[in-house]
Amino acid sequence: MGDYNGYLQGLSLAAILVLAPIALQSLLTDDNDVVYIFVAGEDETTTVYIENNTTNDDARATELNRSEVARIATFNIKVFGETKMGKPAVVDVLVDTVLKYDLVAVQEIKDMDQTVPYDFLDALNNNSSSTWDMVLSPRSGLQDDDQSSQEQYAFYYNTSVFRSMGNGTLHNDSIDDSFQREPFIAQFELLDSNGTGTGFDLSLITIHTKPGAALSEINALPQVVDTYLENNPNESEIVILGDFNAACSYVSSNELSNSPLAHSNYTWLIENNVDTTVSDSYCAYDRIVTNGDLDGRLVGTWGVDTSFSDSDVSDHYPVWFDIKK
Hints:
Elements: H1 4-7, H2 13-19, E1 23-29, E2 34-40, E3 45-51, E4 69-80, H3 82-85, H4 88-98, E5 103-109, H5 116-126, E6 132-136, E7 152-158, E8 162-164, E9 169-170, E10 184-191, E11 197-208, H6 214-231, E12 238-243, H7 253-257, E13 267-268, E14 286-290, E15 298-305, E16 319-324
Parallel strand pairs: 4-5, 11-12
Antiparallel strand pairs: 1-2, 2-3, 3-15, 4-16, 5-7, 6-7, 8-10, 9-10, 10-11, 12-14, 13-14, 15-16
């Protein structure tokens, strides 16, 4: 889909063995030349995907270990409110999951008092040797016809890896009313190993589409990007990530292939043939899309984190990708 194969050709299998310092269980290759690697540690199983094309040595991506990449994830935490925060065992799993990454976009925060996002930030900091912070959205669903399904988004991030550049903003959807929940946009600068700014920044757009209108909302996302870039001419690197509901009964692969978001300007990192759901269904609801190779920092590793199976934690798995520091 999009320009994925053009950007990510030639990442070697050896790279993933460096990136995932845990035991290799099995190796499968599908018809789309993508290698599926299932790796497991003491308490986790993570499915990692890597393009299986090593014929072009010049295009082969640099082999990097975990310390040399920043790992960004998106995670729909099902009905993330006071009830869920009141379950210590569930919170422990959520904290352990988020702390695997350097920045996580979270969808489906539902707390009228708006205390849960801060309570969860405290839980992250109580369990991490690094300092974490967040960029929290206002409640989305601002139009009159959308207020029955208001949610918040949050970007949680490790402050030794990323620096927030502002408070973020909801996309102004007042004219077109294209979204039930307006996408939330925030900008971050990548830091080096010394915590110094690298000069590379990127803007993250997170979305939780309305299931029954998923295709139309996906089709409207390029306009969100265009509007944002028009208003921010110094920004060029964009990542769209979240719960697109982009599969199964909501959106077909054929419909996605004809979407404006499937234009060659965009790179889809999470393919159609993966499962991002905790349930028995097999659906690639959660996606990550970029508007290019992120200034050459997109190294080609991405995956679905299947380290938990309890639907009390969420009905979605996190999905993630790496960029070079």
